[in-house]
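Example 5.3 — DUF192 domain-containing protein
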Amino acid sequence: MKHIKALAWWATLVPGLALLLTLPAEALEKGTLTIDNGEQAYRLNVEIARTTKERAFGLMERDRLAADAGMLFVYQQLQPPSTGFWMHRTRIPLDVAFIGAEGTIRAIDTMVPCGNDVNARCPTYQAGEPFQYALEVNAGFFEAHGVKVGDQVTLP
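Solution (predicted structure tokens):
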């Protein structure tokens, strides 16, 4: 009888945990930003991750990201060049642009899904430059739109 009660308890807990894991993405602030590559400006609809919890969760558990969408990670202070991003529990390949406080793209990298359940085994993609914002978009977006280091981002 104890085993049946334990199974019933887990059956109610596990869907609740799954719901909690998807809530941050739904609850995030939304905005629009513009990337200007000097020849053309591109508008993106972004979810804004401001808190430590929101930034840590990022785009985990997503199966897709719209072509004109992304996630903007906002930090209260300049982050050192050794700060990086990982792809733990992230299912889609992403590009990341590390952006300075003035809105200039300082570094760009392409990140691939980790495929490992242990976050310590996932590679870290370090910025290599100080940054205050990071923008994640679908992999290939920056190259396809001619976006490069030095281009300007107008933040929401």
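Remark. The chain has one domain: 25-154.
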